[in-house]
Write a structure and sequence with these properties.
mainly beta; 29-stranded mixed beta sheet; 6 helices
Length: about 600
Amino acid sequence: MVVLRTLRVAWLSIAMLIVVLAFTLSAVRLLLPGMSEYKSQIESVARNFLQRPVQIGSLDAAWHGLSPVLKLNHVVIQDQQLPNGELTIAEVQVALDVVDSLLQRRWQTAGIRFIGIGLSLETDLNNSPGVDWGLEPLTWLLQQESITLEEVNIAWADAGLFEQPVQLTGLSVKLVNEGRRHQFLLQTDLPAAIGKRLTIAADLNGQGTDYQGWQGRVYLETGGMALDAVEHVFTGAPLSASGRMDLELWAGIRDSHLEWGSGSFVIHDALFENTTADAQGIGADRLSSSFFLQSTVNGWGLGLRRFELQRDSRVVWPWSEVNLNIETGSELRIRGNASTLDLDELHSLTPLLPWVDAEALLMLDRLEPQGLLRDAEFEFNYTKGASPRFSARAKIEDLQFAANAGLPGVSGLSGWLEGNLQSGYLHLDSASAALLMPAVFPAALDLSYLAGVVHWQRYADLFRIESRQLRAESGELGLLARWQLDWPYDATSPWLDIQLAVDDFPLTQVGSHLPEKVMPTKAAAWLKQAFVAGTATNTRVLLQGRVDQMPFDHQEGRFEVGFDFEDVILDYHPDWGRLDELDGTALFA
């Protein structure tokens, strides 16, 4: 009996609720045809909300589902801060919340839709970043369940941001509020000079209109964004950029500050130039990477994944990962690592770095480094008013230096390096390298082994590279080298002091290692065929002087080769016969 009585009460309650709801909806339907008579009252309500004069051309009412909708046609909002002193909206649709209206005993809106807005904006955000947009009276909009703006056209003029006024067409905005959750979506076409399309979305959580305490995620996507369209915003920047960028970004917001970010970008036809008079630059057909950004206690963490550079339809910088820890404060400190760095591209990039001085650039241009750095670690420190400090450590792969102005060239070097543009060490451990001395040898000398330590040091007037002991092997030739190269900044060629100690060497192989470029042709030809057997021991080579003045015909420098020999069979001349079992000492100068 108790159960039956409970069910009967429940059914009666539901039935009464349905009857009341039906009666209420019927009453509202009956009121709608007469709501157009309340235009002046609605204008008064809107005027109080906006704190500005409001005029409504006409008022219609209709039903959308179970909700009545007011249609305000040709709404004009007057404000002296707006161009021409007013803002005209073709149509405003206001949906009424019947249930809340009954509970609150006054009309409550469920959503607002603005259609057809033409707006002109004139700002100066660079000089007045804290400009008052005068939107405080509109904060009540954030309390609505849904707000939509459609068919919005904006003419935006800001000399600090854009060289010409920007026309935004087809702009739409939607805001949905569900308690503490606020969802936002903006989409607009962009002028061809700036890009194609812009999308901004947000999913935020916060109480009321306390925007400073809101948190959540923001999404941004743009296609074909022209980098040079806004480059004048960054006045005083050491670089200028051009190209078209496709960008996708997710970001986390907390307490109105950026907390993290991630996404990807692709820059087509990229060009980066320094803003000095020489305007040196580096370009790429395609520059792409995914990335992440994370705030830290002292600054930011930045990472690039699948970073790649393409030029002339080929990959010139293979996929690599780069991680940066950026600390800001009284001193800028950047620590990082990279899986792969391309030296040829870094060489092209150095003129764009404002802290690399002219002497360092000159030496890099002379050496023309190429190759790859693996597992690189680096650190950069800068304090205003002081010289920047930079250091790096990395494995090297296929390192090359050009033969330039008489300077020997090398290729295929491996090992690791540490140092900076001021000084450092190159630790060599190569199994397949080559030495190129076009001023001395007619062909590259293949090295099956090359090991030792090379030190470089910048002085006030010259750049020095030296090695106290370098071991090299090429076929049956093995040697130890001690050398020093000084290259004054104002000189076109370096000064070289090299001393070689050669292992015991079969004289039958001497023809493959002759410095034919600095020897008389007949002497080189004779040495290639004269030695039938024998061994050279205690071989010493000395070269001192400017390498562009070799072979020192006028005693500008010294080039000597001396060795002992034993058990030599010498075919001195075809008409003379052979000389056997020769022992002695030879000196070529």
